[in-house]
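Cross-posted from the bioinformatics board.
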Amino acid sequence: MDTFFSTYVWPTLIMVGQSLLLMVALLIYIAYVLLFDRKIWAAVQLRRGPNVVGPWGLFQSFADLLKFVFKEPVIPAGANKGVFLLAPLVAVTLALATWAVIPLADGWVIANINVGILYVFAISSLEVYGIIMGGWASNSKYPFLGALRSAAQMVSYEVSIGFVIVTVLLTVGSLNLTDIVYAQKDGLGTMIGLPNTFLDWNWLALFPMFIIFFISALAETNRPPFDLPEAESELVAGFMVEYGSTPYMMFMLGEYAAIVLMCSLTTILFLGGWLPPVDIAILNWVPGIIWFILKATMVFFMFGLVKAFVPRYRYDQLMRLGWKVFLPLSLAMVVIVAFVLKLTGWA
Amino acid sequence: MGLQALFFYIFATVAIASALMVISAKNPVHSVLFLILTFFNAAGLFLLTGAEFLAMILLVVYVGAVAVLFLFVVMMLDVDFAELRSGVMRYAPIGLLVGIVLAVELVVYVGGTAISDTAKSATSLPIPALTERTNTAALGDVLYSNYIYFFQLSGLVLLVAMIGAIVLTLRHRTHVRRQDISTQVARSPETAVKVVNVKPGQGI
């Protein structure tokens, strides 16, 4: 009985506890990231943004949560009921499931698996199902058009994201996310004799890929200017037209969880994860999780600015950018990076 | 071993149940969704055997891309379900035959490894332990070092298939006004704007 407890019960409890802790922290972070997003948007348009609920509007997201939960969920008569309700669940579950392998600081990861980056890539490629299922099950025209658009869009940009990840893997030589961060301790900066600084991180060595990854991440998460699946001027709200109340909230939650995930992934792949920007004692003393959150929030700030600044792409422009610009560019970079690594022996 | 066995039975049961639902569901879209669930559980089974790379690739390639297009097509199809149902008995023998062939192959293979030592040694090729060589690296060795020419050849076959598909579906429509980004960008005030001196009372 003792061995049963020590081999099964305790590890399971610890695992569940860790997952719950991460999830609660993540949800609170998402609540404030949502507010941050709206504040950025407001600031760009010279508005104040939400500022009524709580000091500076700090409780706005929680008020929204209550509002969504207490509203009546309406299911259209012609909808395919099971799939209709399953779709937001799929969206939010997949978006949260990816977080299991994200290392937030040195050793702070629930599952430190060998193929971590592939796991993230696989699960985020599944996120399209939430949208397709929702769009189809609504049994209505705008949602279906939105679903079709998003399927094409997410599949197209996954390809260039995949190649960007391949270039990172070539330089790092591991699929493990923790190893990817460690590999960024030394890089271009230390090669020319500087101490460990932010110049060592992948963003500099793989600069064009950093930009391609950022833009593809916008498209992959249906963020403006690539929010065609929910373009309100053409499709009302795209795949979410028929949704309201808690299911709608779950779609939004899944979307923001995916966005924050992409911010963290950018941080891990290109901005050195939890490493401090300069390797000096006072910055090393700051815990890694703080650096990680700061960097991810900075990436999210750029996401927010893009949303506020850039007008929406037309559908054919979106496809052209994905297939005719990013795909050849990232494919060429894979070959170039491989050649450079082979010829210089850096790999 | 206990947890592994538990997860094996969960994945296996769900995989088989959803595979049954694929062929028995009334709505073809539900069939495809169950097919996706089957893939997902197959990936889980791969993970249990330690083939982590294969599991992820199954998810990325089949579930993330191929099944999306599948779903896409099935959603757009205008299928007459009654007509579809009526054909079931006609195609049942063929389906049964394929099933029997697959089952016999499986039985011969598994039985062979149980009886013959050479067959058994062939299945247990020296695979290095996960701790010293990861799946990804081991697969890379096999594909890109040992069998590079076969790998290239299969790539060539796929390329030919792709070109064939493009040639079959490509059509050049005339009278379509396409966007030409370079001419748009190359526009200057001199080429775009014409200053006309309009005389009052005459117009242009």
